[in-house]
Amino acid sequence: LKSTAEVLGGKKYVALFFAGKWCPWCRALEPKLQETYKKVQGLDPNDTEIVLLSCDNDQAAFDEWFGQQPWAAAPYEVAQGENGKAPIGYVRKAKRDAGKPQGTLGEHFKLASVPQLIVLDGATGTVVTDKPMEQAGTKSDQGYNWTDLAPETWLK
């Protein structure tokens, strides 16, 4: 495990990626996000870091899905508030109905569903955009497009 400062220090942008393997729209966004991340990292490793905040059902699902991704992630137990910890990520309705509170970041950003990608200024932590992408169609297999609100380096 790397420290937060080690992973995010010096980054121009930090993108919080709220998603889960169970979600078809999350899986639809992943190829475009991976392509963009690899391109941007190749041009400037300090441009963007993506941090997955998983809303998977359990640690095993998180491990399987995160193992295929090139970016960083908050530990599952931190994102979902396992082992007596308060959650920081997006907590699904079924878990909230069972008594688990919404995560602090899920609440802060008023998340109602996933996937969500919140892009922050890496130096100040202020929100650059909470709408960097849009659905390309009405079905998840149609994927996503970047909007003109996405960081300029993502659009090149």
Automatic annotation (TrEMBL):
<keyword id="KW-0677">Repeat</keyword>
<keyword id="KW-0560">Oxidoreductase</keyword>
<comment type="similarity">
    <text>Belongs to the nucleoredoxin family.</text>
</comment>
<feature type="domain" description="Thioredoxin">
    <location>
        <begin position="1"/>
        <end position="125"/>
    </location>
</feature>
<dbReference type="GO" id="GO:0047134">
    <property type="term" value="F:protein-disulfide reductase [NAD(P)H] activity"/>
</dbReference>
<dbReference type="InterPro" id="IPR052259">
    <property type="entry name" value="Nucleoredoxin-like"/>
</dbReference>
<dbReference type="Pfam" id="PF13905">
    <property type="entry name" value="Thioredoxin_8"/>
</dbReference>
<protein>
    <recommendedName>
        <fullName>protein-disulfide reductase</fullName>
        <ecNumber>1.8.1.8</ecNumber>
    </recommendedName>
</protein>
<dbReference type="InterPro" id="IPR036249">
    <property type="entry name" value="Thioredoxin-like_sf"/>
</dbReference>
<dbReference type="InterPro" id="IPR013766">
    <property type="entry name" value="Thioredoxin_domain"/>
</dbReference>
<dbReference type="InterPro" id="IPR012336">
    <property type="entry name" value="Thioredoxin-like_fold"/>
</dbReference>
<keyword id="KW-0520">NAD</keyword>
